[in-house]
Write a structure and sequence with these properties.
With 155 residues, the chain is of the alpha+beta class. It contains 3 helices and 7 strands.
Length: 155
């Protein structure tokens, strides 16, 4: 039987085994360790990402590399938490965001890769568990003012 790292949930059910409180991450950077886990390594966050983004290739885009950029995690509309990360020196072209309730539920994942050179035409893929990805205007939100994202408006 393969061994599983303690910070990797076996399932969503396992991640929900104990009470979850992600509020200590607010004000911290995605790479800061809180109670033994970086934000993306927290079992409840990993489970929410895996549930929202079933495609492993797309899910692999939500990673905080040692050379990546991040901003402090913030509280956003709906009493949820937003964590954002981007590629160093290309954060305006490649970024991601995870929006989640403090108890580890209601996860949303945004993945953005700019196509073309006109920011007016850029859109990001938004993933929610049990639903197909939806495209929203612009990149992934990095602050409370940017969430929720704007729908795409056809001109």
């Amino acid at each position: 039987e393969p061994k599983i790292a303690p910070s990797t949930p076996i399932s969503v059910k396992e991640a929900r085994r104990g009470p979850v409180d992600l509020t200590p991450y607010i004000g911290k950077y995605p790479f800061d360790v809180v109670n033994g886990h970086r934000f993306l390594d927290h079992p409840a966050v990993q489970a929410a990402i895996a549930t929202a983004v079933p495609d492993a290739k797309a899910r692999a885009e939500v990673v905080f590399a040692d050379n990546g950029l991040g901003l402090p995690i913030v509280r956003v509309a709906g009493d949820r938490i937003l964590a954002w990360g981007g590629a160093r020196r290309a954060e305006d072209r490649y970024n991601w965001a995870v929006v989640i309730a403090p108890d580890g539920t209601k996860g949303e994942v945004c993945i953005f890769e700019a196509v073309g050179d006109d920011p007016e035409l850029w859109s990001a893929a938004w993933y929610v568990a049990g639903k197909p990805a939806v495209m929203k205007q612009g990149g992934c939100p990095s602050s409370a003012e940017d969430y929720p994202p704007a729908d795409i408006v056809a001109g």
